[in-house]
Amino acid sequence: MRGGTELKQIKVPAMHIAMGMYVSALDRPWSESPFLMQGFCVTSPKVLAKLQELCEFVMVDSANSIGTAVDQKLNTAPVAPKFDTSKSSEPIRKSTKPLDINREQYTRRPVMTTADVATARQSYKNVQSSIGNVFKGVSASSGVDSKSIEKASNALVNSAVHYPSALSWLALMQKRSDKVYNHALRASTWALLCGRHIGIEESELKYLTLAILLKDIGNLKSNSSKVKVNTEGMTREEAAIARTVNLVKQSTKSEKVISIIETYREKFNGTGKPKGLLGEEIPLLARIASIAIAYDLLLNPVRPERAALSPSEASRYIYAQRGRAFQDELAVQFIEALGTYPLGTLLQLDSGEIGVVVDHDEKARLKPTIMVVADEFGKPIEDWRIVKLSQTTESDSKEAGKPAITKVMRDLSADNLDLDMQKNSG
Predict the structure, then answer these.
(1) What is the 3-state secondary structure (H, E, C) of 169-218?
(2) Residues near 114 by Cβ (< 8 Å), separated by ≥ 6?
(3) pLDDT tens digits for 235-275?
(4) Other CB atoms closer than 10 Å to residue 201's CB: what's the count?
(5) Is pLDDT at 79 greater than 70 in this prediction?
(6) Is 86 inside a domain boundary?
(7) Which end of the chain, N or C, is more open, meaning fewer C-beta atoms within 10 Å of its C-beta?
(8) What's the rounded Cα separation, in Å, for the pair 393 and 209?
(9) pTM score > 0.70 for this model?
(10) For residues 275 and 216, what is the distance between their CA atoms, to the nearest angstrom?
(11) Domain total in the chain
C-alpha cells in the first residue's frame, strides 16, 4: 500500500516514460540516482530526460499517475482508493441533531506572519518539552505532574486561538517522530483547529487538549504502585484506557477530561470500544478528538510498515468514514477547518519543483500561496521564492531561469521528502 491507494505497478521502458506518470521505483537503488524523492510524478522535462538517461526501465504506479493519456499508454484505469467505503457493509448513522456552530466565537483566521510563527514556535517547543517531562515522570513512577501538563495545555490553546495558521504550519513541519508525546501534541493541534473553527469556547478547548495530551499515559511502562488497576477480562485497549483514567484521576478531577479519554475510541455508528456508544451518546469533545487522532496517525503512522498519507489523502479517509467512525457533519467541519492543503503541506508543482503552503486564498482553496523550497529532483534550494498560485498564469510566472508554476500536481506525505523546514520557518 502507498498513499491510501492500491498500488498497480507496471514496468515501463525508459523511452516510454511520459509526463504525468508516477514513478514508484527505478531499476537501481534510489541512492544511486539524483532523485531525493522516492516516488514522484513526472511533471518536468528535465526529470523526464534524466530518467531516460539513467534507467532502462522504471516501475510506474497507475493509480497515482495523472491524465487520461497516461492511462491509455499504460492501458489501465486508476484503481479505487482503499478507503472507498461506498460498498462497505458497516452500518451508517446520521446525526440526529445539527452541530451548534458559532462562527463569531473567534476572529477570522489571520494571515500568518513570520512573527506569528516565531511566537507560536517558542510556545510549541515549550509545550513539547513540558509534555516530554510529564511522560518521563510517569515512566519513572513519579505520577502525573498536573501543573506542568495543564500549563502546557493552556499554552497550546492560546496559540490555537491567536495563531491558528502558524500552529498548523508547525505541526506539519515537525519531523516525523515515534515519540508518543509528539503524536499527542500534533493530534491536539488538529483538534484545536477544528474546535476553533466551529466556535467551541476556550474553556472547553482546554479540556479537549488536556485529554488528548494525556490519552496514552496508560501505555507507558511504570512500576508505580499507584498504577495498579484490575484489568482482568479486559482487552488490551480497554486495559490501557483503565490505566490512563486511573493516572489522570490522580492529577485532575475534571469529569470532562476523563470522559474524553474514556470515549474517544468509540465510533459514531456504535461499533467502537469500550462501550459501543451510539451517535450523540459520545461527547462532542470526544468526537472531535477521535477525528484528530485518526488524522494524525494517517499522516504519521506508528507502525513502520504503514506508509504515511498526504494531507489530502488523510482528509479523503476522514470523509469516507462519515457516519461510520465519525459524525458526518463533524467530519466535514474538520476537513473545512484544516483545508485541503493545511499550512505546511508539501506540494509537487507542475514545474516539478517542491513547495510548501504558506497561505490560503479563501476564494481559491486549491491555489494556495506557496514557498518553493526544492528543485525538480527534490534537492533543497537556497533561493526560496514565494508564488501566489491564485494570481499566477503561465505567461507571468516565468522568471529568468525559473520554470513556470501555475498549479499543484499533488500534495506529498512526510515520507516523500526529508526537509527540515522548522529551522527556517521564521
Answers:
(1) HHHHHCCCCCCHHHHHHHHHHHHHHHHHHHCCCHHHHHHHHHHHHHCCHH
(2) 426
(3) 888 888 888 888 888 777 789 999 999 999 999 999 998 89
(4) 12
(5) no
(6) no
(7) N
(8) 42
(9) yes
(10) 19
(11) 3
- Domain containing 317 — which CATH number? 1.10.3210.10
Burial of 253 (0-12, 13-18, 19+ CB in 10 A): exposed
Q: Are residues 263 and 372 in the same domain?
A: no
Instruction: Tell me which residue has cell 457533519.
Output: 329
If asked whether residues 399 and 303 sit together in one domain, one would say no
Give the count of alpha carbons within 13 A of 5, CB side only. Answer: 18
Q: Are 263 and 276 in contact (CB under 8 A)?
A: no
User: Measuring CA to CA, which residue among 177, 135, 183, 185 is closest to residue 160?
Assistant: 185
Q: What confidence category does residue 80 fall into, taking pLDDT thresholds of 50, 70 and 90?
A: low
Given 25, 46, 74, the domain boundary residue is 74
Residue 380 phi/psi, 5-degree rounding, is -55, 140
Among 303, 338, 373, the domain-final residue is 338
Q: Residue 165 corresponds to which amino acid?
A: S
Residue-wise pLDDT tens digits, 264-319: 999 999 999 889 999 999 999 999 999 999 999 999 888 777 778 889 889 999 99
How far apart CA 406 and CA 350 sit, in angstroms, is: 7
| Other beta carbons within 10 Å of 337 | 21
Lowest average pLDDT, out of 25-39, 53-67, 161-175, 178-192, goes to 161-175
Cα within 13 Å of Cα(307), Cβ side: 17
Query: 62: domain range?
Result: 9-74
